Amino acid sequence: MARALPEVYELAEALERLAGPDDDGGEHVRAALAGFHCRLEALRRSLNRLPRTAFESMLVNSRETPTHFKWNLYRGPCSGLTLWLHEYKPPDLVDAAYVEAPHNHRYGFTSLILTGGYLHTRFLVEPAGRDRARVTDVRPEFLAPGATYTLTPDDWHNVTRAREGTVTLIAQQRPTRAYSTSLSTPSDVPLGAHTGTLRHHYPVEARWRTLRSVLGHPHERKSQ
């Protein structure tokens, strides 16, 4: 599918030749993505003339999340590199409590703001007992088109106040663990001043064994 989007395919080839993002803090990946921003108009033209077969191939791995739509552009056959367009939903379609929860990801990634913009906040989170943690530092920054940043699987952040029409380009690395984690916190207490509950989130593929187990329980089957 990526070959139908030459700008994306060239970027993917360049990223595949780079060392992993942890080797240099993501500096080279950020530079590659920053250079891609000037090709935004070319990407628009390519998307407008995308063949139907390529569009259907894109849809296979694209999906909706509570905050945005993830359009899959490229999946490396061996490297684990995946490129996405994240199309953020209008604020009135998003649950504010979900958006504001600090969280990490199963994988590292680098993001480029293509259009719009949002408030990106990094958090320092420390353990505070079993399934509990506290925020010890908050670092907000509004990111406009052309801005880039890199997160490792251990970094905590959130994305809020997304402008309508916000789209980002994501270069995602191979997952390093089975789940991501969010920190549920009271809505009436400022972040950085309280302790919250940790919640693990698993992708649907991690539920495969559980699904087979549930379907296999005789006591759960409908009586004949």
Output the CATH homologous superfamily. Jelly Rolls
CATH C-level name: Mainly Beta
Described by the principal axes of the CA atoms, the overall outline is: globular
CATH architecture descriptor text: Sandwich
Number of DSSP helices?
Answer: 6
- Low-pLDDT segments: none
User: What's the order of the H and E elements?
Assistant: HHHHEEEHEEEEEEEEH
Average of the residue pLDDT scores: 89
DSSP strand content: 25-35%
Overall structural class, as computed from helix and strand content, comes to: alpha+beta
Please outline the major beta sheet.
6 strands, antiparallel
Q: Give the fraction of residues assigned to helices.
A: 10-25%
CATH topology-level name: Jelly Rolls
State the total count of DSSP E strands: 11
Q: Biggest sheet, strands in spatial order? A: 1-2-3-9-4-7
Rg on CA atoms, Å: 19 Å
* Tally of individual domains: 1
Give the end-to-end Cα distance, rounded to a whole number of Å. Answer: 48 Å
